[in-house]
Amino acid sequence: MVLKVGIIGATAYTSLELIKILLRHPEVKIAYLGVRRTDRPNISDIFPALKGLLDLPCETIEQKEVPKNIDLAFITLPPTVSMQYVPLFTKSGIKVIDFSADYRFRDKSLYEKWYKAQHTDSKGIETAVYGLPELFRNEIKKANLVGNPGCYTTATILALAPLLTKELVYSEDIIVDAKSGVSGRGREPKEDTHYCECNENVEAYSVGGHRHSPEIEHILSIKTNQKVSIQFVPHLIPMNRGILCTIYAKPKGRAKEAVPILTDDTVHNLYKEFYNNEPFIRLKEGNETPKTKDVIYTNFCDIATKVTENRIIILSAIDNLIKGAAGQAVQNMNVMCGLDEKMGLL
User: Can you list the alpha helix ranges (DSSP code H) found in 166-300?
Assistant: First the structure.
């Protein structure tokens, strides 16, 4: 039976990528598009690239009614707005994958501290599953509500999870230097993403206060059963899409013989074992390093590691709109609905 899906917030960059993926998915039909505007344009009027592919009209989303003809909803609304709509769908028995940060934290107070808003769906935030299949696949299989991770968080968590799980690095001495294309700042016009402002320019932003920092720390702490603390500095790069993270972790001393001597080979083999048979993790060999050009328009996360005298350097690259958003959401949908996890993505 074909899975009928809706997209709530259909005009976002991530929604366009989501539509493109779903149009080639053999088990999915896009049955509903919702927007927060009063007119009813066809989606192909908003995104001309969809002309002849999807000419479905967009409906004005209501806070009291949900479409009756869908099995799963992708909600691509901003943080604090999304939680106003998610409960309407979950209460109607519709599975939900939420793109905002509203359902990524298990700690409600942590969300409220960083997003400066009261969370109005206590049940949802308590029951939502974090949508990173490589780490939470079994929970996602049984979930009705998934919080789709952020782009920086995906690239960082996947890069650090093997070392932290094995307790081979100090969990409170980690530096993350991350760089993102301009689409990572969203479709809403902002002065610092105007062409003349960001072209031929590289700059750091939200230094010491980016909202993905607590998400990274929170999820890694839960997954590895230890307190994780990072210094996270994001940078805006004058390109359309792609994220590259360079991460510096301090290795622990060999207090016990059970702790292996960390070399390039032992760390690389650790990652191979940890991500064995993961379809969307690609480990670089030898002196190869991840490049954003190698991952854009794909759902892959490319990872490389290098051991130096005082640090282990981990590099990871993803497409912020695919593995960092729409592609990962489809991966989550496939897991939730018992479909081949790679369907529509490879």
Answer: 195-198, 212-224, 264-274, 292-295
Q: What 3-state DSSP class applies to 244?
A: strand
Fold adopted by 3-127: Rossmann fold (3.40.50)
Non-local CB neighbours of 54 within 8 Å, separated by 6+ positions: 19, 23, 30, 43, 44
Active-site residue 198, yes or no?
A: no
Which residues belong to CATH 3.30.360.10 in the chain? 152-320
Q: Report how far residue 212's alpha carbon sits from residue 202's, in angstroms, rounded to the nearest whole number.
A: 20
Compute the average pLDDT of residues 318-337. 97
From 58, 151, 198, 301, active-site residue = 151
Residue, of 174 and 182, whose pLDDT is higher = 174
- What is the pLDDT, as a whole number, of residue 45? 92
Assigned CATH class of 152-320: alpha beta
User: What is the amino acid identity at position 213?
Assistant: S
Residues with Cβ within 8 Å of 256's Cβ and at least 6 positions away in sequence, in order, are none
Considering the entire predicted model, what is its pTM? 0.93
